Amino acid sequence: MVALTDLPKPDQKTPPTALELKLRRKARINTAIRYSVLIVVGLIMVYPLVWMIGASFKTNAEMFSSPSFWPKEPTIQGFIDGWKTSTPYTFGHFFLNSLWIIIPKVIGTAISCTLVAYGFARFEFPGKKILFVTVIATLLLPNVVTRIPQYLLFRDIGWLDSFLPLWVPSALAGDAFFVFMVIQFLRAIPRDMEEAARVDGANTLQTLVYIVVPMLAPAIISVCLFQFMWTMNDFLGPLIYISSVEKYPVSLALKLSIDTTEAFAWNQILAMSVLTLLPSLTVFFLAQKYFIEGISTGGVKG
Amino acid sequence: MAELHLKSVEKTYGNGFKAVHGIDLKVEEGEFMVLVGPSGCAKSTTLRMIAGLETITGGEIHIGDKVVNELVPGKRGIAMVFQNYALYPHMKVRKNLSFGLSLKREPKNKIEEATNNVSNILEIEELLDRLPKQLSGGQAQRVALGRALIKQPEVFLFDEPLSNLDAKLRASMRVRITDLHKRLRAEGRPATVVYVTHDQVEAMTMGDRICVMKDGHIMQVADPSTLYERPANAFVAGFIGMPEMNLVPAVLKNDAAPVLTLHDQSITVNEGLGHRLAGLAGPVTLGIRPQHLEVVVDGSENAFSAQITNLEFMGHEINVHAKIGDAVFVAVVPTEKFDASLGRGDRVGLKPIGPHIHLFDADTGQNVSLSANG
Ligand SMILES: Nc1ncnc2c1ncn2[C@@H]1O[C@H](COP(=O)(O)OP(=O)(O)OP(=O)(O)O)[C@@H](O)[C@H]1O
Ligand SMILES: [Mg+2]
Fold it and tell me: Is the CB of residue B38 below 6 angstroms from any atom belonging to ligand 1?
């Protein structure tokens, strides 16, 4: 296929050759087709999101009466009522709860995954192969399989209705996917810098902190982002372990408003959903650059 | 500064591969020792064992009067320059230089002074605030050199530091490094250096002594001229020198004067060889450098008759490739002495110059033509 960008820029001095004209026409048609397909598919994908944002400004009555996403009489009543919630707490309280789950979890994940990945990628120790296979095996294991034993375990320790069951597994590098991701990234980084640091007198921990972590930054940022977004959206985890409304994160709080209201106040639910999306979106766009560098492994430039 | 002593050092890798077979090497204080050898002969392994980046599986390594076998690299008093520079990519040049010192918690002003001093010597002052990715290869290598220099180590280790540079830069860096070595010696703090390369020009021009290695064994340790003129074995003879020494199986007979038989031709070597042989006879490997093979008129006395297979014009000299039986010899002839009417297929005489003939044991490859006064 010919892309427009492959062809020389038309300039006034030398008239384009016949072949060039033909190629250019072909390239234009190609581009037009490609972009139309992309735009159509893209629109189909984002339409629900756009509709949700539009609908959050509708009245409850208008919600299902017109398919258009554009509110006839825009109102922020949904946001005001939704924020108050039907519980003694405002939605802000649930946001703080979410944050209180997310921040320790993200920090714990970043530290533990880096340590474990560093160990696997750079050191030889007895049983390494078996341990690594175990880590990868947990990647393949469906999540639900471990839910019940995990629940029983945490119940017996007495951690139910606290954030500990949400924090602790991640802080112990329980997310095999992240460990795997960091290992892959680390494998692409030559060892010479670490060896140079050892010759410079750094011990293992100093090498990790001063040399490896900065080089791993894109991967670690990606890990934090993923963990942030997944925890923000996690519904099942808090649902299982947290029983008092006071400790609910936003994902549960949203569900709460569906449960308790007889006639669903859809506009409130949608308004709060929009708010719930905001942190993830903001964080994603702020860190986009590192994020993309991090997931396309081999981030060392020559 | 200190001397470095390897005592029957061995290395077997985790996969059971024995890379180093008990080598003994003594590098004197302030000496520039070059390790050279073909790819895979364990030069890097040896260097990394000295650095402490690889554990040794036998023997002892002494630096000064300490045995350093068990010490971590940072405690051995060494500094290393890597082939691909290995600068810390996220640190400015200044921080790259001072990283080692700041780990040792040296006072700030001392670090600053040392940084300025080293960047002055290597002319990298204007690069101090750049990141490694903003440096050219030559600049990066100078920074890497500075990172080693700033620590004032007992022993400097270089692993093919110039092989990523282009030919011109390599030549100038070569001079820079030897100058630096001389300068340190003149300042009264001579630097002990172990320098790994597979480039024999680097080896010959830089080394006080050269250690030639092959498959984890040391073949010979000597100064450049000894290595060139009195190679201990056929391997060293073939490895050092450009173009390579001609090494051809021959038969030696010792009458009044030694007689060399090659294919179906025999010549008598009247001078320069007989007194070195002490009555030896039998099958040998004849070694003669292209520079020591005279091209004479075919049929001359005591010259092999050979057929020219190729002529390479090099400007000031000509490489003459000529065949005796299956054996191809190369002779280097100054252009002005070469008979321009000769061409491919013509016959010439090849006359080895007696004092420069080497004979190697056909089985062991040891040089048997090295008498004490040879
Ligand atoms: N980690 C390792 N495990 C097993 N064998 C290894 C390892 N590292 C090197 N070797 C082997 O040890 C031998 C020596 O390797 P080394 O890197 O020291 O060679 P070298 O002389 O530096 O070669 P070059 O000139 O190509 O750098 C080689 O045969 C190599 O295959
Ligand atoms: Mg090497």
Answer: no
Report the chain A residue with the minimal C-alpha distance to residue B147.
A200
CATH of the domain at B106: 3.40.50.300
- Indicate the SS3 state at residue B81: strand
Residue B374: is its pLDDT beyond 60?
no
- 3-state DSSP of B254-288: ECCCEEEEECCEEEECCCCCHHHHCCCCEEEEEEE
User: What does the pLDDT average to over B309-313?
Assistant: 93
Test A200 with B14 for CB contact under 8 angstroms: no
Closest CB to A192: pick one of B86, B100, B133.
B86
By a Cβ cutoff of 8 Å, what residues of chain A touch chain B?
124, 190, 192-193, 195-203, 206, 210-211, 214-215, 217, 300-301
Q: Decide: pTM greater than 0.95.
A: no
Q: Ligand 2: distance of its center to the CA of B199 in Å?
A: 12
Domains identified in chain B, total number: 2
Give residue B322's pLDDT band: very low, low, confident or very high (50, 70, 90).
very high
Question: Rounded to an integer, what distance in angstroms lies between the CA atom of residue B324 and that of residue B345?
Answer: 12
Q: Is the pLDDT of residue B373 over 60?
A: no
Instruction: Find out whether the peptide bond into B243 is cis, omega within 30 degrees of 0.
Output: yes
> Which one has a higher pLDDT value, B257 or A101?
A101
Averaged pLDDT of chain B:
92
Let me know whether B75 and B208 are in one domain: yes
Q: What is the mean pLDDT of chain A?
A: 86
Residues B327 and B345 in one domain: yes
The ipTM is: 0.88
> Structural domain of residue B310, as residue ranges?
244-373
Helix (H) / strand (E) element for A95: namely: helix A91-122
Q: pLDDT over 70 for what percent of chain A?
A: 91
Cβ B211 under 6 angstroms from ligand 1: no
Is B75 in contact with A201 (Cβ distance < 8 A)? yes
Q: Give the CATH number for residue B363.
A: 2.40.50.140
Q: Comparing C-alpha atoms, which of B53, B5, B56 is closest to residue B216?
A: B56
- Residues of chain B positioned with their CB less than 8 A from the CB of A190: 84, 86
Residue B291 sits in the same domain as residue B341: yes
